[in-house]
């Protein structure tokens, strides 16, 4: 649907209380949420292949819920995921390998926008050098996975957070936190978040916004509830109150919206977390995990648009 103000997202007159299939439970007035991994208890996926760790930051328990075919598909696609240096130190164990199996994990999750660069983060770093200001990351999340791998906690960092960024060309090197990734790439983003929060980051996962858009299409849309009607003047979209199934460009517009919201970027954070919660529920649904065609599309999109740290 459309009008003189631009595209209008449709809705159905249902109540948000009519279903409760969320994985991440995000309160609309909060910038943090907690996940329970009850559906995947005992699957041991995190213990069997450490490369899955970063992937799980976005799509926790996918393999465990999908069964044998999903595990085979995911396992064989892991090596196709791009990896980049991020200055992250791994936890050694007594045998000299990774000691992550018995420790909680903190993963920095970034949503990347290539802007006019037209190349991925991995492509930009292929020659060992980062091109300043050609990439952006306005979505910054910290994911904490408990040592027993039973729970996940998610914390969003507002992109306008004023903080010190090593090497930033300003008085005392202070700027908005999203400038760290733009200026120095993954390594500087990790360092800046660690300095701001005092939290040691174990892994990094970057999802391309184009990949996010394609993921919602592969899933056949993601169902979300919009609590009130409002108009986003920046993207020229009117969002109608009620349940909506969003995919493709409209889904991307939804998670990027901050104009027309009473709390601006804080409301956008809540919407992004809620959308991630709904995406998780869709990924874990039988319609996805038991449909080889849909599942293949989803895994291909994820692995084709995900970048993780080289550790």
Q: Can you tag this structure with a few keywords?
A:
single chain; 311 residues; alpha+beta; Aminopeptidase; 8-stranded mixed β-sheet; 4-stranded mixed β-sheet; 11 helices
Kindly describe this structure.
This protein has helices spanning 45-48, 52-56, 62-66, 68-77, 121-124, 178-197, 209-218, 248-256, 265-284, 286-289, 292-304, and strands at residues 2-3, 6-9, 24-26, 32-36, 82-84, 105-113, 136-145, 151-157, 162-164, 174-176, 203-208, 222-226, 230-232, 237-239, 242-246, 306-309. With 311 residues, it is an alpha+beta fold. The chain is globular and about 45 Å long. 33% of the residues lie in helices and 24% in strands. Helix 7 packs antiparallel against helix 11 (292-304). It has one domain (2-309): Aminopeptidase.
Secondary-structure blueprint of this entry?
Elements: E1 2-3, E2 6-9, E3 24-26, E4 32-36, H1 45-48, H2 52-56, H3 62-66, H4 68-77, E5 82-84, E6 105-113, H5 121-124, E7 136-145, E8 151-157, E9 162-164, E10 174-176, H6 178-197, E11 203-208, H7 209-218, E12 222-226, E13 230-232, E14 237-239, E15 242-246, H8 248-256, H9 265-284, H10 286-289, H11 292-304, E16 306-309
Parallel strand pairs: 2-14, 5-16, 6-11
Antiparallel strand pairs: 1-2, 3-4, 4-8, 6-7, 7-8, 9-10, 11-16, 12-15, 13-14
Helix pairs in contact: 4-11, 7-8, 7-11
Outline:
By secondary structure, the chain is of the alpha+beta class.
């Amino acid at each position: 649907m459309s009008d003189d103000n631009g595209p209008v997202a449709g809705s159905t007159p249902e109540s948000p209380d009519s279903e409760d299939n969320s994985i991440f439970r995000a309160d609309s007035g909060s910038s943090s949420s907690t996940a329970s991994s009850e559906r995947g208890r005992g699957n041991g996926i995190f213990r069997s292949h450490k490369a899955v760790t970063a992937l799980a930051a976005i799509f926790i328990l996918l393999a465990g819920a999908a069964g044998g075919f999903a595990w085979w598909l995911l396992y064989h696609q892991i090596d196709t995921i791009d990896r980049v240096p991020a200055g992250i130190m791994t936890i050694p164990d007594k045998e000299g390998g990774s000691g992550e199996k018995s420790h909680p994990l903190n993963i920095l999750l970034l949503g990347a926008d290539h802007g006019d660069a037209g190349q991925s983060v991995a492509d930009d770093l292929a020659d060992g050098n980062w091109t300043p200001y050609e990439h952006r990351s306005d979505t910054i999340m910290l994911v904490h996975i408990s040592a027993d791998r039973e729970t996940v906690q998610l914390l969003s960092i507002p992109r306008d957070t004023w903080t010190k960024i090593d090497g930033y060309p300003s008085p005392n090197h202070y700027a908005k936190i999203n400038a760290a990734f733009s200026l120095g790439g993954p390594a500087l983003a990790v360092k800046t978040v660690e300095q701001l929060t005092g939290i040691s980051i174990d892994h990094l996962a970057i999802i391309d916004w184009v990949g996010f858009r394609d993921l919602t299409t592969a899933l056949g849309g993601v169902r979300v509830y919009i609590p009130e009607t409002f108009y986003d003047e920046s993207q020229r979209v009117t969002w109608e109150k009620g349940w909506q199934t969003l995919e493709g460009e409209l889904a991307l517009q939804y998670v990027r919206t901050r104009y027309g919201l009473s709390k601006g970027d804080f409301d956008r954070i809540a919407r992004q977390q809620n959308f991630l919660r709904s995406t998780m529920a869709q990924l874990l649904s039988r319609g996805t995990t038991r449909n080889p065609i849909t599942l293949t599309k989803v895994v291909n999109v994820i692995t084709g648009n995900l970048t993780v740290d080289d550790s």
